[in-house]
Every structure is written in structure tokens, then in C-alpha cells.
């Protein structure tokens, strides 16, 4: 999972994810958890957000590959999770959005 375009990823994020998620380390959680530094973090582990039990039980550590399958179909990848979103179908969009999330993690 290399070569994503951070700028394009940001645009998609702003359109599709930012109403529920922030990537600003100083921002509060929205309807979804803050995604700053999500790549490399254990799923459902950020403090202060009330995750579904599906996430709380998960031992998954987010990396570009599993984020991509998650975004392609959240409910299929983590059954009975609470993210009311489906689905980021275009592999190019997924690559770009993950590049954006990773860039924000550094
Ligand atoms: C309508 C609101 C909403 C939208 C839109 C949304 N999400 Fe979420 N997201 C959530 C919620 C709520 C959760 C927590 C789910 C749970 O606890 O089961 C979540 C969880 C996540 C997680 C897991 C975070 C962690 O710390 O484990 C990731 C990654 C994520 N979302 C990425 C995205 C991306 C990228 C997009 C845009 C393509 C997106 N989400 C769109 C609400 C949303």
C-alpha cells in the first residue's frame, strides 16, 4: 500500500469522513473517534470515546492493509461495529485516504 496521494486523500476525507471524524490532535471526538495517529494504533483503544463492544474486544492493530479492507466494507470487516458508513469502493480512494491518515500520524 504505497504511493497514495495525501492531498487527494484529504479531499475525500473532508467529504466523506470529517462530519464524524477529526484528525486534529487537539480536537475532541465527534460522532466517531479522533483519527489522529490511527495507523499503528490498536483498534478501539483511544481514550475518551465510547466504542461498541465489537471494537472494545478487538485486538486488531490498524495498518494500511486492514484499514483498506475496513473502509471497503466496515460491517464485514468488524461485524456489528457502530460506524454508520459504507463503503469506500474505489481502491484508489482508499489508498489516498490512508496516505492522508498516515501523513497525519507522524
Ligand atoms: C456517520 C459517522 C461516520 C462516518 C461518516 C465515518 N465514520 Fe469512522 N467511525 C464512526 C464511529 C461511530 C466509529 C466507532 C465505531 C464503533 O465503536 O463500533 C468509527 C470508527 C472508525 C475507525 C476506527 C478507529 C479506532 O480508533 O479504532 C476508523 C479507522 C474510521 N472510523 C475511519 C473512517 C474513515 C476513513 C471514514 C471516511 C471514509 C469514516 N470513518 C467515516 C463514525 C463514522
SSE layout:
Layout: H1 6-16, H2 53-57, H3 64-72, H4 74-77, H5 91-103
Bound molecules: heme C (HEC).
Family: Belongs to the cytochrome c family.
Protein name: Cytochrome c
Keywords: Electron transport, Heme, Iron, Metal-binding, Mitochondrion, Respiratory chain, Transport
What this model shows, in words?
The chain has helices at 6-16, 53-57, 64-72, 74-77, 91-103. Helix 3 crosses helix 5 (91-103). It is an all-alpha fold. It has one domain (6-103): Orthogonal Bundle (Cytochrome Bc1 Complex, Chain D, domain 2), CATH 1.10.760. Helices cover 40% and strands 0% of the residues. It contains five helices and no strands. The model has no long low-confidence stretch (mean pLDDT 93). The longest helix is centred in the last third of the chain and has 13 residues, at 91-103. Heme C binds at residues 16-17, 19-21, 31-33, 35, 38, 43-44, 46, 51-52, 54-55, 67, 71, 81-85, 88, 97. One of its GO terms (molecular function) is electron transfer activity. It comes from Popillia japonica.
Concise synopsis of the structure shown:
By secondary structure, this protein is mainly alpha-helical. The protein is built from 5 helices and no strands.
The distinct ligands, each listed once, are:
heme C
CATH homologous superfamily caption:
Cytochrome c-like domain
Q: CATH first level: which class?
A: Mainly Alpha
User: DSSP helix count?
Assistant: 5
* Average predicted local confidence, pLDDT: 93
| Major pleated sheet | none
What is the CA-atom radius of gyration, in angstroms? 13 Å
Q: In percent terms, what proportion of residues is strand? A: under 5%
Give the CA-CA distance, first to last residue: 17 Å
Count of beta strands: 0
CATH topology: Cytochrome Bc1 Complex, Chain D, domain 2
Poorly predicted runs are: none
Topology pattern, helix = H, strand = E: HHHHH
Classify the secondary structure makeup into a structural class. Answer: mainly alpha
What's the helical proportion of residues? 25-40%
Amino acid at each position: 500500500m504505497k504511493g497514495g496521494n495525501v492531498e487527494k486523500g484529504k479531499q475525500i476525507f473532508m467529504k466523506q469522513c470529517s462530519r464524524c471524524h477529526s484528525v486534529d490532535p487537539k480536537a475532541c471526538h465527534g460522532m466517531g473517534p479522533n483519527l489522529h495517529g490511527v495507523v499503528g494504533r490498536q483498534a478501539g483503544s483511544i481514550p475518551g470515546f465510547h466504542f461498541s463492544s465489537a471494537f472494545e474486544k478487538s485486538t486488531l492493530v490498524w495498518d494500511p492493509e486492514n484499514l483498506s479492507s475496513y473502509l471497503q466494507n466496515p460491517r464485514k470487516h468488524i461485524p456489528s461495529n457502530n460506524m454508520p458508513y459504507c463503503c469506500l469502493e474505489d481502491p484508489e480512494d482508499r489508498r489516498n485516504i490512508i496516505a492522508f491518515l498516515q501523513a497525519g500520524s507522524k
